[in-house]
Specification:
Length: 394
């Protein structure tokens, strides 16, 4: 173990996936000692990138407090974090209330109750906020409050914390300490708003990566330029590496290409005149009364270099499924470009198979970092308050 991490607060990452949240927490100064997931491929990626953490392939229902305590090697666990899947509440696709994945938060709450960390952090899809008029949000909040935790929750946008992506998630933070938990204030804003830094754009995030010019299967490429933005410097992690890996993308069928060639940067299929589209697209654009649909706004959407990306999903290699067309080339974004838009640094390696799932399901590291830094500040605040109260009592 790196000696610099010896005195760092201890974190456990439940439902760790490929490790985006652990990466962010480590950047914030936590020491993730354990990542648990049921996806062996994602866990292999986690293990490769977090050599100082234990990686446990286990169904969360079979995990108990002793597993977490053993990984902490006798130290108190400061933070239990994770994003239990609640896909039945997702606004992407059909909502299914009795999807068994929706109950995974109960095991998260069980482990928090049994281990009693100082804080917990839970991230989830924003659809959980409104589904059944907020019933499940309230159920989650009450589950932790029953165990003696003060809880706060809020929908946050990853772009507000320096991630070049408009990814909305609900965040729960809770503590058993004698303080009121809060959610960190945004540090980045839309350009027309005052205060803070402007959103990081697709162009700022990807500008130093090479164009592929139709070579979609080549894995390793030389960078197109030195890092010229703060985000590119972050992504390249201040290394002198000359090449970038996982820069592989998908081409497209002839039919898809005909559509994409008509799409301007920052536009999607609805920007194309109906008479220029194949018949199946014309049908897709209208509803039964003949009026234009109000959805499908991001199908075959070409990313804009002057704005953040939309949510990167597990389908980012399929340009027909959403806003995943490269800004200037007729192709999907590459694995590395998607990872950049998620705020993974270029030395983060994803192991096959299942790369799109691992990247699309991850917690953006910079979002995890912002949340981790905020939790550490609350830890310091509680310590200062306790010390002040002790002096007063004396």
């Amino acid at each position: 173990m790196d000696s610099s991490l010896a005195d760092s607060p201890i974190a456990v990452d439940l439902f760790c996936g490929a490790g985006g949240l652990s990466d962010g927490l480590e950047q914030a100064g936590f020491r993730p000692v354990l990542g648990i997931d049921f996806d062996r491929h994602a866990l292999a990626t986690y293990k490769a990138n977090h050599p100082n953490s234990r990686a446990m392939l286990r169904d969360i229902a079979e995990v108990n407090s002793a597993d977490l305590i053993e990984a902490a090697e006798g130290r108190d666990i400061d933070l239990i974090a994770g994003g239990p899947s609640c896909q039945g509440f997702s606004t992407v696709g059909k909502r299914i209330e009795d999807d068994p994945r929706n109950a995974l938060f109960m095991h998260f709450a069980r482990l928090v109750r049994d281990v009693r960390p100082k804080f917990f952090l839970m991230e989830n899809v924003k659809g959980l906020l409104t589904y059944r008029k907020g019933y499940f949000r309230q159920l989650i909040k009450e589950s932790f409050e029953y165990s003696g935790y003060r809880v706060v929750s809020k929908v946050v946008c990853a772009a507000d914390y320096g991630v070049p992506q408009l990814r909305y998630r609900i965040v729960f933070i809770g503590t058993r300490l004698d303080i009121e938990p809060t959610i960190p204030e945004a540090t980045h804003f839309e350009p027309n708003l005052f205060g803070g830094k402007p959103y990081v754009t697709v162009g700022e995030a990807l500008g130093d990566l090479p164009l592929l010019h139709g070579q979609f299967d080549q894995d390793e490429w030389e960078y197109a330029s030195p890092p010229v933005t703060a985000y590119q410097q972050y992504a390249r992690n201040n290394t002198q590496a000359n090449t970038v890996t996982l820069h592989r993308a998908n081409g497209m069928s002839q039919g898809a290409r005909k559509v994409v060639e008509l799409v301007s940067e920052g536009q999607g299929v609805r920007s194309i005149s109906p008479e220029l589209l194949p018949e199946r697209f014309t049908r897709m654009r209208t509803i039964s009364d003949g009026s234009l649909r109000k959805d499908c706004t991001t199908l075959y959407h070409r990313l804009a270099r002057w704005a953040p990306a939309y949510t990167i999903t597990c389908s980012f290699r399929n340009v027909a499924s959403g806003p995943f067309v490269h800004p200037t080339e007729n192709r999907s974004i590459s694995y590395r470009e998607a990872a950049r838009l998620m705020s993974f640094r270029d030395n983060y390696q994803f192991l096959s198979p299942g790369l799109t799932r691992q990247i699309g399901n991850a917690v953006p590291p910079l979002l995890g970092k912002a949340l981790g830094i905020h939790i550490r500040k609350m830890m310091i605040l509680e310590g200062e308050t306790a010390f002040r109260n002790m002096l007063i009592a004396a």
